[in-house]
Write a structure and sequence with these properties.
Number of helices: 10
CATH superfamily of the largest domain: Ribosomal protein L10, N-terminal RNA-binding domain
Largest sheet: 5 strands, antiparallel
Number of domains: 3
CATH class of the largest domain: Alpha Beta
Strand order of the largest sheet: 2-3-1-11-12
Oligomer: single chain
Number of strands: 12
Length: about 280
């Protein structure tokens, strides 16, 4: 037993051993942040993840102890333990896990002091509010408001807080009244350890449509290159043979090479040329 865990009470040592056991029994170990998730939503998330992943909530210090004892690359995971961390154990790959966790997020109202995850924009237009104190509240929060046709109207689209800035109490109250929910609440992946490597969210947050479009474009360009360069492959052999047959037929017709496969085309060509020649002759008369 490492020196730094000998002083731990028995229940803590048991917890460390359990974390180690679970980490060694799956292909992926992840750290997630549970900050701000309501209890009801957390229970639903656990139920939704039940068949594909196991969520384990424990103390950050015990997570650090367990990963330090496991050593190797896993020891680096402990450096990502911050805030209200929890462990997630699964046999899926980190990209699928990231997408799965993103699916747990729901929009919620902002609380005073929270950091805006993106620019919060108030669009211009009428609201459902009748004239009253709400006009002053909107204006105090930096939102241009006025009364028109017996309703409170926001005169111009306004960015009330930029990404990364704190949301004030006045603004949080106004956003709630406007039913604008800017906060993404759900499990946030901090880091994932998979097949000897660490994966952070910025490595996993890929736009699948963009990648699919790029792969589709690359495949089309490779196909065209193979056709134009006459490189036979399983995908291009049929079009190449078809093109060669068409080119051979065109050459035989132009060169008047008599063959049963092109005789009808040669006769039609001669007929068209005779009609054209007769037309020229008649014009000269």
């Amino acid at each position: 037993m490492p020196l730094y865990t000998r002083h731990l009470p028995q229940w803590k040592r048991d917890e460390v051993e359990e974390i180690k056991r679970q980490a060694q029994s799956v292909s992926l170990v992840g750290l997630v942040d549970m900050h701000g998730i309501p209890a009801a939503q957390l229970q639903k998330i656990r139920r939704d993840l039940h068949r594909s992943a196991e969520l384990k909530m424990t103390r950050n210090t015990l997570i650090e102890h367990a990963f330090q004892e496991l050593g190797g690359p896993l020891a680096d995971v402990s450096t990502h333990v911050t805030g209200q961390s929890a462990l997630i154990f699964t046999n899926t790959n980190p990209f699928k896990l990231y997408k799965m966790l993103e699916g747990t997020k729901t929009k919620m109202a902002a609380k005073p002091g929270e950091i805006a995850p993106e620019d919060i924009v108030i669009p211009k237009g009428p609201t459902s509010f009748k004239p009253g104190p709400i006009v002053g509240e909107l204006q105090q929060a930096g939102i241009p408001a006025a009364i028109e046709a017996g309703k409170v109207k926001i005169r111009d689209t306004k960015v009330v807080v930029k990404k990364g800035e704190a949301i004030s109490k006045k603004l949080a109250d106004v956003l709630t009244k406007l039913e604008i929910k800017p906060m993404d609440v759900g499990l946030v992946l901090q880091v994932a350890f998979y097949e000897g490597s660490l994966f952070t969210p910025d490595m996993l947050a890929i736009d699948e449509k963009v990648y699919l479009d790029r792969i589709t474009l690359a495949a089309a360009q490779a196909f065209n290159l193979s056709i134009n360069a006459a490189i036979p492959t399983r995908m291009t052999i049929s079009p190449l043979i078809g093109r060669a047959v068409q080119q051979g037929r065109s050459l035989a017709i132009e060169a008047c090479i008599f063959d049963t496969g092109v005789m009808d085309a040669i006769i039609m060509k001669a007929y068209r040329e005779s009609l054209a020649l007769r037309g020229i002759t008649e014009q000269k008369k």
